[in-house]
Amino acid sequence: MTMDQKNALIERICVEARILPVITIGSEEQILPLADALAAGGLRTLEITLRSSHGLTAIRRLREERPDLCIGAGTVLDRRMMDEVEAAGAQFIVTPGSTREILEAGVSCSVPLLPGTSSASDVMEGYALGYRRFKLFPAEICGGIAALQALGGPFADVRFCPTGGVNAANAAQYLALANVMCVGGTWMIDGASLSSGDWAGIQRRTVQALAALG
Prior knowledge:
Elements: H1 3-17, E1 19-23, H2 31-41, E2 45-49, H3 55-65, E3 70-74, H4 79-88, E4 92-94, H5 100-108, E5 113-114, E6 116-117, H6 120-128, E7 133-136, H7 144-151, E8 159-162, H8 171-175, E9 183-185, H9 191-196, H10 199-211
Parallel strand pairs: 1-2, 1-9, 2-3, 3-4, 4-5, 6-7, 7-8
Helix pairs in contact: 2-10
């Protein structure tokens, strides 16, 4: 797959998702019911992070048992982790930041990489290797909407998935920007519902989150 094809694929994945839920699995028992609740609420593209020891297991199980969902891997920090999530079946990969090693690995990876960026310099390094789609993280700390508007000047063909500080109150404002293809966040997955197994509550908040985007 060429870089142009990877850029087009990650664009399609993100645009169709609108909201990319950033999921940290606390136990293996949460994997299927949480995914089912999000999917029932309208979110069928999921970013499973490697912030817990259950991340790789969740990616494998969801790819095997929920093949109709689009499953990505998040919080991928180095080449070893990239290899692991690719082997587990991840359909896209998201990193919180960028290193030369991981950007070069993404060029040869069989699935698209959405590299993290927090500055114009990060974008330029990825741009030189053919990347045109990035994650802005942590979005609000990096300048939020104003930063994305400013980046749109020198990088007219680049689009972003802002994550970090994006919530129910500002998600629609981010998505209104021409260079934003989707937003990432966790506001539909509150900790109390996750701990208690209130899957109906998570489904309800997912429906509300999408409805608020108009």
